[in-house]
Write a structure and sequence with these properties.
Blueprint (H helix, E strand, L loop, with lengths): L1 H4 L4 E5 L2 H4 L14 H10 L3 E5 L30 H18 L10 E5 L13 H10 L6 E6 L13 E6 L4 H10 L6 E6 L10 E3 L2 H13 L3 E5 L13 E2 L5 E2 L18 H11 L21 E2 L2 E4 H4 L4 E6 L20 E8 L3 E4 L4 E2 L1 E6 L2 E6 L5 E4 L6 E8 L16 E2 L4 E2 L2 E2 L3 E6 L3 H6 L6 E2 L8 E9 L6 E4 L5 E6 L2 E7 L6 E4 L7 E9 L6 E5 L7 E3 L2
Parallel strand pairs: 1-2, 2-3, 3-4, 4-5, 5-6, 6-8, 7-33
Antiparallel strand pairs: 9-10, 11-32, 12-25, 12-26, 13-24, 14-20, 14-24, 15-19, 15-22, 16-21, 17-18, 17-20, 22-23, 26-31, 27-30, 27-32, 28-29, 28-31
């Protein structure tokens, strides 16, 4: 409704394969994944729809929205006509496309166009791949206008015969338009992704694009008679472990918020960009826009005090496993989730050692590992920390590595190499460690629910880290949106009523997690926080977001 009130006439939406098919043969299109209901809702509001069914969507999601079980194939070549990849795409499209075919414009529905893949020109590893995607859609009944979307450098390689090319950009320059016009002189000109802001990574600043820069570019696009799609109009949140990562110049994981400095904030607030766009678009419309919907009330609830804790070690009996292996096994190859491997979260690797010395990761830790000896913390492996001293001790001791998947790359050349956990040997004094016991800690809802049966201890008895902390939030009447803040905590994950709200990390920039009111019950709400190293034992609920210190996108 806020989109309609801004004068926008079309909703563009991605279809994340990884959410709709988390395991081979298991397809989810219900509740929050009910794509048909979402598209029909857009139609009810008088919006057209451009659909982006992928299979790869980027969207700053883990592996660009591709399911991680594809990586169980050691020879996998994603986004190519490699037979195992096309077979998986065909199986997904067999389920997805029949659901959207009746919603096309020619059949009385709102879908007026469909985008093939996403920015393939910057990848372009297989000349026949885009033709395969085109035929995969058309053979299943897609008959509307087909589009591709690429930055200028990828326009040529990302295109396919009979499909309109469109641009991705943040700044408009004459060279971009000349390149597009030269490739397709008789086709409509469209900016399929005009970037209204940018995404953020942990340990950096919050990226913003000045409102004046955005509206001047959109004004120029419209002045030239081109169509424009705002990426993003509303960014939202990457709940759970869904956010991706960047590789350039070094690995950096994306934060939970996908606010994107968009015209509508993460929680749906109007921003100066929204008002400027509404004013601009009104000059191109003969009709008055609908009134702007009223904003929902935000609540700063009383802090939730953690009253129980459970050590990681006491929670291990509730995991799937454990599994024995002579050598380390990456997450995707673990025999969990009906043979589909582990997609997200943490994995714990334990083995016996009889001496101290120098532990070397050989760059085999993906992406971060807390290291323990007999459950006492001794150090951390990061992507750029490859050595660690293990203290001497008597007899046989247990060495534990708690490895976190911080997010797979969502774009770039290296998508095939995004396996997580331990990818190879860890050396102690030059000798590879062997005989591991491995626990999968993907922290899915059934695992979190099972923890209520665990032997929790009352605080303030000395808690051990890593560990789980339990508290309660009380709400009255119809719960309101709020923002979770964890000052004094280090790094971990927040679960509300069993739902994974996402990661927090004291290094920022993001300082609050958006908690939508519909995630809350009227009355008691159970909160579980998994914390790696330090805790304040209470969490706060504020009525405004804090995404960190801002810096202009250059």
């Amino acid at each position: 409704m806020k989109m309609k009130a801004c004068g926008i006439n079309t909703l563009t939406t991605y279809v994340p394969w990884s959410l709709h098919q988390p395991e081979r043969g298991a397809f989810h299109f219900h509740t929050q994944l009910d794509l048909q209901a979402y598209i029909n809702l857009a139609a009810e509001l008088g919006l057209w729809v451009i659909l982006r069914p992928g299979p790869y969507i980027s969207s700053e999601l883990d592996l660009g929205g591709l399911p991680s079980w594809l990586l169980r194939d050691g020879n996998m070549r994603l986004r190519t006509t490699y037979p195992e990849f096309t077979e998986a795409v065909n199986a997904f499209f067999d389920k997805l496309i029949p659901k959207v075919v009746p919603l096309q414009f020619k059949k009385g529905g709102p879908i007026i166009a469909v985008q093939l893949e996403n920015e393939y020109g910057s990848f372009a590893k297989d000349e026949s791949y885009m033709l395969f995607i085109k035929e995969a859609l058309q053979s299943r009944g897609i008959s509307e206008l087909l589009l591709t979307s690429d930055s200028t450098s990828g326009l040529k390689a990302g295109g396919v015969t009979g499909v309109i090319r469109a641009l991705k950009l943040q700044k408009l320059n004459r060279r971009d338009l000349q390149t597009l016009l030269a490739l397709q002189p008789n086709n409509p000109m469209m900016v399929m992704d005009y970037w209204t802001g940018g995404s953020d990574v942990w340990g950096d600043l919050h990226n913003v694009l000045p409102s004046e820069d955005m509206v001047s570019t959109v004004r120029e696009i419209l002045r030239r008679g081109m169509s424009v799609n705002l990426y993003m109009f509303h960014g939202g949140s990457s709940f759970g472990f869904m956010s991706g990562a960047l590789a350039d110049p070094s690995f950096k994981a994306l934060v939970q918020s996908y606010d994107y400095d968009a015209p509508l904030s993460e929680a749906g607030d109007y921003t100066p960009k929204y008002h400027l766009l509404r004013d601009l678009f009104s000059r191109y419309s003969r009709e008055n826009f609908p009134n702007m919907p009223a904003l929902h009330y935000r609540e700063s609830y009383e802090p939730a005090v953690m009253y129980q804790h459970l050590s990681l070690w006491e929670a291990l009996s509730f995991t799937e496993g454990p599994f024995k292996s002579s050598k380390p096994v990456n997450m995707e190859s673990l025999p969990v989730n009906n043979g589909n491997g582990q997609s997200y979260g943490y994995a714990l690797y334990e083995t016996a050692i009889t001496s101290g010395g120098l532990l070397k990761s050989g760059d085999n830790v993906r992406d971060r590992a807390l290291v323990f000896v007999d459950r006492r913390y001794v150090g951390i492996f990061k992507r750029w920390t490859l050595e660690l001293a293990v203290p001497d001790g008597k007899g046989r001791r247990t060495l534990s590595l708690l490895v976190e998947n911080c997010g797979r790359l969502h774009q770039g050349e290296d998508l095939d190499n995004q396996r997580k956990g331990l990818l190879g040997d860890i050396l102690l004094n030059g000798i590879p460690l062997r005989d591991f016991t491995i626990y999968a800690l993907d922290m899915k809802p059934d695992f979190i629910d099972s923890l209520y049966q665990a032997p929790w201890k009352a605080l303030p008895e000395g808690p051990s880290f890593p560990g789980f902390f339990m508290g309660r939030l009380f709400t009255y009447g119809y719960p309101s949106d709020t923002f979770v803040k964890l000052p004094g905590w280090g790094k971990g994950v927040v679960f509300i009523n069993g739902l994974n709200l996402g990661r927090y990390w004291s290094i920022g920039p993001q300082q609050t997690l958006y908690l939508p009111g519909p995630f809350l019950n009227s009355g008691i709400n159970q909160i579980i926080v998994f914390e790696e190293q330090e805790a304040d034992y209470k969490i706060q609920f504020e009525d405004t977001a804090d995404l960190g210190m801002a810096a202009d996108i250059l």
